[in-house]
Design a protein that fits this description.
The complex is a heterotrimer of chains A (230), B (183) and C (598). Chain A is of the alpha+beta class. Chain A contains 6 helices and 10 strands, in the order E-E-H-E-E-E-H-H-E-E-H-E-E-H-E-H. The model of chain A has no long low-confidence stretch (mean pLDDT 96). With 183 residues, chain B is of the alpha/beta class.
Amino acid sequence: MAFVKFIVDGKECMSEEGKQLVEAAKENNIYIPTLCNYPGIPPKGSCRICTVLISGRPATACTTKVTEGMDIQSAVPELESFRKSVVEILFAEGNHFCPSCEKSGNCELQALGYKYTMMVPDFPYMFPKREVEAWHPKLLKDHNRCILCKRCIRGIHNNDGKTLFAYGKRGDKLLINIDPETSKDISDELAQQAMDMCPVGAIIRKEKGFAVPIGRRKYDKMPIGSDVEE
Amino acid sequence: MAKKIIATASLSGCFGCHMSFLDIDAKILDLIELVEFNKSPIDDIKKFTKQCDIGLIEGGCCNDENVHNLLDFRKNCKVLVSVGECAIMGGLPALRNMVPLQECLEEAYLNGPTVRDCNENKIIPNDPELPKILNKVYPCHEIVKIDYFLPGCPPTAELIWNALVTLATGAELKLPYESVRFD
Amino acid sequence: MGETVHAIIRNYNGDPTRLMDILIDIQSQLGYLSEWTIEQIAKSLDIPKIDVEQTVSFYHFFTKEPRGKYTVYLNNSVVTGFYKVDEIVKTFEKEAGCSFGRVSPDGLIGLFSTACIGMSDQEPAAIINEQVFTRLTPDKVKTLIAGMKDGKTIEQLKGSSYGDGQNANPLMKATVKNHIRKKGEVIFSGDYTAGDALRKIKSAKMSSNDVIDIVKKSSVRGRGGAGFPTGMKWEVARKAQGEPKYIFCNADEGEPGTFKDRVILTEEPKLVFEGMTIAGYAVGARYGILYLRNEYMYMKKYLVSILQDMERDNLLGTAIGGKNGFNFDIRIQFGGGAYVCGEESALIESAEGKRGEPRDRPPFPVEKGYLQKPTVVNNVETLCTVVKIITKGHEWYNTIGTRESRGTKVLSISGDCEEPGIYEIPWGFSVNDILKMTGARDVQAVQVGGPSGSCIAANEFGRTLAYEDLATGGSLIIIGKNRDLLKDVVLNFAEFFREESCGSCVPCRALTGMSKLVMEKIVSGKATVSDIDRLVSWAPIMKKNRCGLGQTALNPILTTIKNFRHLYDEKVKGNSEIINPAFNLAAATADYEAAVKN
């Protein structure tokens, strides 16, 4: 296996050649924020929050493979301000009311809001009219909270290898649908996996909730990415 | 140093932010050294008696009375702060923003299971004394300029305290990780 | 009905990558794609139903509900607005008995609006059942609707007065006009005979490397707007691993104000197809695909017959020109109505039967493109140019144009001028030259390169069209002084981008809609200086979108803020930053007043 040296924000790093930049940075204790990326499933580069500068040019770290001598800027003011904007845009684009959300405290979008000390989104609230789908026996799909990251589409498949989720429509009407047929007999484990994979509270497993009280959840005490950083 | 004059209001909120304010506990003794209260539910002063330095707004605007109140605060306070999720993004009351007002009112007064059998004349309350409901719940900064925002439902007492100290003394704002919460 | 669906699916061997064709054919026969139809397709192709639905719901022209026996798609692009389109809309609605976005109660007529249909030189125009109707007037609309009520066929509705040139071809019978105002030395030189370049390759014994070499020496660059050197693209694809390789011709010209590909494909289709064949020879590709926008469906029969002619003449197919081993077939892939599919990787996704979402790069299409095979995507004009370069030599080509921009450019010119239409001119002309040529007077602004380009004011009319100065994919919309630039032009473009964003990248999906909201505020005089500043601050955010559409989607707003700042300043003058001028208490309580009144 070939190893390569690369630089992130001036720090010399080392990793396997061709490794996803997000993961390669992580190995070197550097946290590059992500939202649509999820370890082990094909990257899509749609939230853009992991955008870094490679030799001055913007590229998403989730879709970039690390090569020898790559010179990367990540935690620079221009990009940190961009990342904060992405978080704020998502909060203003959907209907994100944290106090009533089962995912609060475990939500990656919220955690990034904390990381960037978002006090208010500096973007106009859209208050879009969106549905809550509760017909599925095991899953609740709350479109108000969905950030359309495609994790569930890319990562959740039934026993036949078929997708349970797919996009519908386009642009600001984009949404993620559940297939009644392919999702019919899913196991509790798969339902749980779908909920856990969702970065926000858009996919909620039915019948079980608030097992861990708010205030004692993952990001309540510890900033996102702090487990990566030295 | 002259004491800063402070005013507070709860618009379309639950008073939870005011409760959280009181959670500063014994620091309230320090606070009265720093600030003087004017119009506020805390001292029950109903009308502005002088120009204030800081206005704390809890709640968003769901009716015309809220709007008038907010405009009054904007006029009488040098600095306005949105306190809590409702002031910042409409909060719980804004859950109705996805439903047309007509439907909301009909559900609340005509068709809801607890009213449909007792509202014989099928009246949606319309006494001129009642505040007029807005078409949606507005975050405060969609109506007037808001200078600062303190998120949370409610914001932690620590955040409110730290922000007030900064506004009153000019000291650098302390924002420990756990003090900024959205829930 | 079931038989129709299954026969069409069998036509495409039940291949899910041909989903676009399956949907287009079924809708063309049955009028719409019902739940039942979608279920049948999903079962036959063995894919989840939501996978079929995600493609169906992505494209503007696919519908799950009936859209009437006659379906009208009236163009709503900027230039249409210059021709009293409101009256046309009113007449349609009055005569048909339904509003836009709906179908008449008897199910006869459906009225819908659509983005630029490539007829900006003959607006107002509409597509009715795949046929184009141009230069609409209220009287014409009345006659059309009366004809529909009389049960006339679409052919009868068109009448018998067809457009010039091949528009009148019996296989097309289009009322569309070419409006070729200026013929240049490359595309419309009139000296082309089908097979010219292929014969040259044979007689001069040119290898594929020789072809690439000449194309490189000619320094021809992509005509779609990005200007990537064509020879270099071909060379990379040639060296890329994977078989078979593909040549795509991108004829999805969706940039509002652009219609050059329509005219080239009407008058010189063989030049286009031969260009694809030459590219196939150079790259070592076996198949060519012309990706044609759905709006140009009226050309289908005509273009298919041209392909058959060329195959008959041994200009396509196997052992082309008697050269053993040189095999190349071309098929036409129609789109479904989505501007973003003009982006090459979105175009490839669409041709694979999927939503037109741009791909992440790398890998580039030349390495992994259509069906993950090396794929070259070239613009219509680029491919035509190559045929001429092979035929006449790169030395000839290099005498035309400027130092960095060789050759000619076919411009689509529309808007406020006397002679809108097609102008093929060498690179290096100034905007002023062009305005003079087209008979434009009292010009306020020129939209160069469509909404994703820039809107320039008179102080820049001295600039020249060239890659080194004002690069353009080829459209110029001339905007007269009588127009309300912000309302009539910028707001229309803002709505266009909101509608056409694929939605994948967060900044593009959200900020196209948000910027339109702010723009409406500005136009209505309810915005403040900080609203303008906010729009400007969104520029670097948009630059981080994945594709060119997303990166340029705020250009209509940003370039007018830069070049026409005074218009914005007038709109916000005197507005308070303390009390939001956009909030109106009377308007906000109107719903309540209405509710309690009843």
